[in-house]
Design a protein that fits this description.
Blueprint (H helix, E strand, L loop, with lengths): L17 E3 L4 E3 L1 H9 L3 E6 L4 H16 L5 E8 L3 H9 L4 H7 L4 H4 L1 H14 L3 E5 L2 H9 L11 H14 L7 H23 L5 E6 L9 H5 L4 E8 L22 E5 L12
Parallel strand pairs: 3-6, 3-7, 4-5, 4-6, 7-8
Antiparallel strand pairs: 1-2, 1-8
Helix pairs in contact: 2-6, 3-4, 7-9, 8-9
């Protein structure tokens, strides 16, 4: 949401370009695809309502498939507790629509038309699908009682970063301290669940998730316990920010993503308007 705060579309000087955060240089898509093919876990971080992000995710999947790869497609949009229903529906030859129904996909909240092509890709190419998310019920339980996460206490830096993310995501309005602590722990629990789902797979994976979940410095990679991870953050270009380094501010650092793939902005109302 921090990236979505401005309602005006900036010049697309960076849109379409890919920045290698470690090498500090632009690269061509083919180089990124090759690096992805060499990585066990590929994490693709989106802004959920940006159709361009989903188009580029599909482009990555197609590039991997063209190299003869079959991976597990793990998605934040499916709860891990619905995995058995997901697999049962697929065993009957269900198409994307029936499969989404069986897995209780929240069509309104997740904007199903943006995700349907990804599910159809998995079905067409024989890629297993994995529900990666913690259910809302379980997340609410953790918010109410942070100890229910079962996670070790976060480092001060991790805690501060997640608190800042949540406050910025609420347009600068900090929740009461107890609720903020619960929301931080629920976010950590989601990241840990996604990491556990990826780690349990016997083959390579691709994770489709919100950009905050693919951060190397405080999200899924922290809990994955594997160095063989490639994180791609799809970043919407913003007014006044004309170089990749301009985006490493309060939202992210050069250590947050291996690659930043810049895109145009989605048309949306200012989420903080009227607050």
């Amino acid at each position: 949401m921090a990236l979505a705060a401005c309602a005006h579309s900036p010049p697309d000087t960076l849109a379409g370009r890919i920045w290698d955060a470690r090498a500090e240089r632009y690269i061509a898509p083919e180089e990124l695809f090759q690096r992805a093919a060499q990585s066990r876990h590929v994490l693709l971080g989106e802004t959920h309502d940006n159709a361009e992000h989903h188009r580029l995710q599909l482009r990555m999947l197609e590039a991997l498939a063209a190299r003869g790869e079959t991976r597990v497609l793990a998605m934040e949009q499916f709860d891990s507790e619905r995995q058995a229903a997901l697999e049962a529906a697929r065993a009957t030859g269900a198409g994307a629509e029936r499969l989404a129904d069986a897995a209780q996909f929240e069509r309104k909240g997740w904007n199903w038309p943006l995700y349907k092509p990804l599910v159809e890709f998995a079905l067409a190419h024989g890629w297993p699908l994995a529900g990666a998310n913690l259910s809302r019920t379980d997340a609410r339980t953790v918010v109410a009682d942070p100890m229910r996460s079962g996670l070790a206490p976060p480092s001060p830096a991790l805690l501060a970063g997640l608190e800042r993310d949540i406050v910025e995501g609420h347009c600068g309005a900090a929740p009461p301290a107890a609720r903020l602590a619960g929301m931080v722990e629920a976010q950590r629990a989601r990241d840990a669940r996604m990491a556990a789902v990826l780690a349990a797979q016997r083959t390579g994976t691709v994770l489709i998730a919100g950009i905050g979940h693919v951060r190397r410095d405080r999200a899924v990679p922290v809990y994955l316990g594997s160095s063989d991870v490639l994180s791609v953050g799809f970043l919407e270009v913003q007014e006044g920010k004309r170089a990749p380094r301009d985006y490493f501010d309060g939202f992210a650092t050069p250590a947050s993503f291996d690659y930043a793939w810049f895109t145009s902005r989605a048309e949306r109302e200012d989420p903080c308007k009227g607050m």
